[in-house]
Amino acid sequence: MDTKPTIMIVEDDAALARELALFLEKWQYRAAVCVHFDNILQEFMEWRPQLVLLDINLPGRDGFYWCSQLRQISKVPVLFISSRGDDRDKIMAVAQGGDDYVEKPFRMELLKAKIEAVLRRTYEYKVRECIFLNAGLCFDSAAQSLRVAKPAKEQEIDLTKSERRLLARLVENRPDVVTRDELMMELWNTDAYVTDAALTTIISRLRTKLKAACGEEVIFTKKGQGYYVQ
């Protein structure tokens, strides 16, 4: 049984809708993209989402209208996404039953934070911080665990304590470079003294494990500076 929250995207910009769907799926949500803007309620009833991302400027009726219609049949949270940044629009969004408002253009990280906050408030979901390093690897920052996330091949990758700490630091700072000195300090915080040569060995071993799991390089070197993940 699929337990991923479903998020319905009501956005008439097809390119943006596809981009949103892609990011939502990477964040472990199910994305339901609305295609019939003349009967949004019907699509809503078919998908039964846990949250709706709703644009204001839509063909025919606007997002304010559809939010008010949704409120007559459901208490599902509605997060407005719109290029209209006037305070009157934000007040209207709340007045029609919206739960939050994100002004375009927005960073996907901000949208992710808003979605997680609304879901927590509404359903008390425990949202896991699963960060995709590429299409096949997912790093859980809370548990510092790494797993292969490909269909029919989901499994955790065995990492040592030192490898977990280094990967966590690199992921936390992505895509910026983390210097060798910073990585060594990260390991020294575990009360284990690590030499420069030992750090090189750990990084090499970690790179080998990651590439074996997904077939791609994950950790890159910035010559004379340090390491980074994209």
Q: What is the H/E order? A: EHEHEHEHEHEEEEHEHHEE
Q: Architecture of the largest domain, CATH level 2?
A: 3-Layer(aba) Sandwich
Strand order of the largest sheet: 2-1-3-4-5
Give the helix proportion (percent range).
40-55%
Q: Biggest β-sheet: count, sense, barrel? A: 5 strands, parallel
Based on CA inertia axes, which overall geometry fits?
A: elongated
CATH class of the largest domain: Alpha Beta
Radius of gyration: 21 Å
Give the name of the CATH superfamily of the largest domain: Response regulator
Number of helices in the DSSP assignment: 8
- Please report which band the strand proportion falls in: under 5%, 5-15%, 15-25%, 25-35%, 35-45% or over 45%: 15-25%
Low-confidence stretches: none
Q: Note the gap between the termini.
A: 33 Å
Oligomer status: single chain
Class derived from helix and strand content: alpha/beta
What does this structure look like?
This protein is an alpha/beta fold and 230 residues long. The chain folds into 2 domains: 122 residues, Rossmann fold, CATH 3.40.50; 72 residues, Arc Repressor Mutant, subunit A (Orthogonal Bundle), CATH 1.10.10. The protein contains 8 helices and 12 strands. Helix 3 links the parallel strand 3 and strand 4. Helix 6 crosses helix 8. The longest helix has 19 residues.
What are the key terms here?
230 residues; alpha/beta; Rossmann fold; Arc Repressor Mutant, subunit A; 5-stranded parallel β-sheet; 8 helices; 12 strands; elongated
